[in-house]
Design a protein that fits this description.
The structure is a single chain. The chain is of the alpha+beta class and 151 residues long. The chain has a domain of 98 residues: START domain (Alpha-D-Glucose-1,6-Bisphosphate, Chain A, domain 4, 2-Layer Sandwich), CATH 3.30.530.20. The chain is built from three helices and seven strands.
Amino acid sequence: MTQIIETIDVSVPVSVAYNQWTQFEEFPKFLDEVESIQQVTETLTVWKVKVGGFERTFEANISEQHPDERVAWTSTGGEVDHAGVVTFHKLADTETRVTVQLDWEPTGLLEKLGSVVGVAGHAVKKDLKNFKEYIEAQGSADGSWRGDVEA
């Protein structure tokens, strides 16, 4: 299993960063590989991603969620086996540290090779940079879901 951990500081309050992250259907605006996400229930999402020219579909279940602190998920079906968590840390009233930890199982020769040379880590770093640019330019979140999901 491959593990990726990336962090970025964004110049918005923690609630703004967190609220935007709960708007899964908006992810294609800042996550390059995400084609679409459908929010089926409060805890179930269906993702369509395109990586290296290959389209993949999978379901992800929100396994834990606490407002302004963390969102954790695990894949439950489809072509991608992974789990992850994003945490939000207040640095100041208008500064938030966002950390993503992603554990995934590469399949096929290209994914395994990409894992060895760190391609996925670079993609996550780029996506976090895109998130930073998006949320700082917006100044507010597209919406929010403040529900609590216990582990």
